[in-house]
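Example 3.2
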Amino acid sequence: MGTIIGRQGLKIKYIQDASGVRMVAQKEMLPQSTERIVEVQGTPEGIEKAIWEIGKCLIDDWQRGTGTVLYNPAVRASVGSSSGQGSVTGTNPSYGGSSRSYNRTGNGADFSDHPSSYSRRGNNDNPNRGIPLVTEDGEEVQTQNISIPSDMVGCIIGRGGTKISEIRRSSGARISIAKAPHDDTGERMFTIMGSAQANEKALYLLYENLEAEKMRRSQQQPE
C-alpha cells in the first residue's frame, strides 16, 4: 500500500491529479491477508488511467510487495473452525478448480497469466541451496515470508511471547520475527519454516489472531 500512497501521500495525490479520479484506501486489511482495497471513483477513462498508474507503481516497486499475503475468498470460505488438523486448503476457480494450499505469499500483484508466481517457496529462491532441507518425516522444508503491520505485531507475539510460542508448538513450524521494520511502512517480516502442512497451520493461526485482534479493537471504538 505504501507504494501507491507514497511519502506523505504524494504518489496517490499525483495519480488522482493526473487521472481526475478520487481514490480511497481502506484502513482494514482483507480477511486472512495483508492486502487492502483501494477504491477508484471517476469516469471510465480516468479509472483506466489511474489503474495503469497503479499497476506501474506496483511493477516498478515489486520488491516492496514481497511477503504480501494475497486475499483469496475461496480459502476464506473453506477454512471453517480452528478445530481438527488445521488444514487450510481450498478450491480457487481462477486456478482451474484445483485444490490450493495456503501458500499464498508473493509479490502482491501479478500482471501475467502465470498464477504460479503467487506461491513462493523460499528454498527455491537460492540457486546455491544444494540438497533441499527436509523434516524428520522426510518432507521438504518450505519457507514463507509474510509482513505484519507494526501495530499488530504485539498481539501476535503475546505477553512474554506466549502467543507466538503456542503457534509454534501447535503448528510445528519455526517462526522467526524481524527485529526491525523492513521498510518505511513499519511492517515487520515473519519468516515461517516447516513442512507444507505445518506452514498452513501456522498461517491459519496467525490470521486467526489478527482477525480476533481486529474484532476486539472495532468493539472498543467509541460510537
